[in-house]
Amino acid sequence: MVTPDTAVQPAVDAPTDEAAPPYLVVEQVSKSFGTTLALERVSLSVSPGEFVSFLGPSGCGKTTLLRAIAGLDPATSGRITQAGRDITGLPPAARDFGIVFQSYALFPNLTVAENVAYGLRGPAWPRPRRAQRVEELVQLVGLGEHVRKFPAQLSGGQQQRVALARALANEPGLLLLDEPLSALDAIVRLHLRQEIRALQRRLGVTTIMVTHDQEEAMGVSDRVVVMSRGRIAQIGTPEEIYRAPSSPFVAGFVGRSTQFDAVVDAPPGSVQAMDDGLRLQADGARRLLYGTRVQVFLRPEDVRLGAAGSQKRAFPVTVTHLEFLGPVCRLSLEFAGRHRLEADLPPGLVRTLGALPGAVLDATVPADRVLVFAADA
User: Fold this and answer.
1) Sign of the alpha-carbon torsion through 255, 258, 264, 268
2) For residues 166 and 119, what is the distance between their CA atoms, to the nearest angstrom?
3) Distances from the Cα of 200 to the Cα of 144, 193, 221, 223, angstroms
4) Residue 273, pLDDT score
5) What are phi and psi for residue 86, nearest 5 degrees?
6) Residue 2 has what pLDDT?
7) What is the pLDDT at residue 268?
8) Where are the alpha helices (DSSP H) in the chain?
9) Residue 4 and residue 9: Cα distance in Å, rounded?
10) Which of 128, 130, 134, 243 could form a disulfide with 120 if both were Cys (CB 3.0 to 4.6 A apart)?
């Protein structure tokens, strides 16, 4: 679940040198599997040291894009450059990246130290340097006391730390994370994502993560790339994606919201729901013509509740259900016996208002918080 706090507090330690050229550039990349078009003319750039997440539903193309960057599924058309070098046609071994998979992909017959050291071969890694690098990494990921253990003797979180250390062993310029935390339980996932972000900041390695978890993407990324049907729907900071979605798809996919169809009404800057007469002031409607059909999205934290008859431009709602979620209570509301929406309130305010099932309250939504999209957007 994406909460307002996770959405509006993006990571701010991204590179600030705006004059620096992009580290990774994807230009008009498409990928086909037979007659299936998995990516369609995707373009984006990633700055040095930036943490970018590819977010979207299953089948949207986010993993295909990551694999195209890695060379595991080469692009059908388009161009990919890394640090100014065209890597479009290079095999994975000739590209400069480390990768962490969802499944860990550790060698079960090798110890932690041996797994981390697996890729450190050749004249560039003589035995003393290799041993020193392994020691640095296992300490960095907090596994110093587990170096002689085998993967089966570790927890899932510890195994993923080994996989992360192995991916960083060769000092890659680019770190790729393919759903790295989805196999872990919620508490371990939260701690490990924080550790990954802290480690990424410390090392300054450019990082791309694929995830379907909105909170995960919002919590660690400098920018989020929202994908749908093989295309990029929007690129922006977590706050931009959450507060200023560019389309109905992004508004509905990122975060929680109530959606309904409406028309632009008079006076200017208002919308009226088509099924029950609910009328709201909406700044986003000012740019649209009277009578334009629109889709409206309301975030639950933007629905304000007060005692009946206490607010101007309010509409009466009936509380039909209440969920206690810890820091907030989520109220299910009903308007005119048909229209349903949600509101998130602090538990203390719920008690003050007596907002229990059956209570009738006044609801308002600030005009600048009503998300409005033309129906053909």
Assistant:
1) negative
2) 8
3) 19, 10, 11, 14
4) 86
5) -75, 115
6) 52
7) 76
8) 4-7, 62-70, 112-117, 127-140, 156-168, 186-203, 214-220, 238-243, 248-253, 347-353
9) 8
10) 130
- pTM: predicted TM-score of the whole model, two decimal places: 0.88
DSSP-based three-state secondary structure for 361: strand
Strand order, beta sheet including 24-33: 36-46, 24-33, 77-82, 85-86
Query: In the prediction, which pLDDT does 336 show?
Result: 80
Task: Give the C-alpha separation, 169 to 119, whole Å.
Answer: 7
d(C-alpha 323, C-alpha 344), whole Å: 9
The radius of gyration of the chain from alpha carbons, rounded to an integer in Å, stands at 24
Backbone angles phi, psi at 247, to 5 degrees: -155, 165
149-174 as b/e: b if 16+ CB within 10 A: ebbeebeebbbbbbbbbbbbbbebbb
Residue whose tokens read 């089966």 = 152
Low-confidence residues of the chain: pLDDT under 50: 1, 3-16
Residue 165, helix vs strand vs coil: helix
- Which residue type does 125 have? W
pLDDT, one tens digit per residue, over 77-124 is 999 999 999 999 999 999 999 999 988 889 999 999 999 999 898 888
Find out whether 371 and 280 touch, Cβ atoms under 8 Å.
no
Which segments of 279-338 are extended strands (E)? Answer: 279-281, 293-298, 304-306, 315-324, 329-335
Euclidean distance between the first and the last CA atom of the chain, given in angstroms as a whole number: 26
Residue 151 and residue 162 in contact, taking contact as beta carbons nearer than 8 Å: yes
Whole-number Å distance between alpha carbons of 269 and 64: 42
Structure tokens at 309: 């008859």
Measured distance CA(156)–CA(39) in Å, rounded: 32
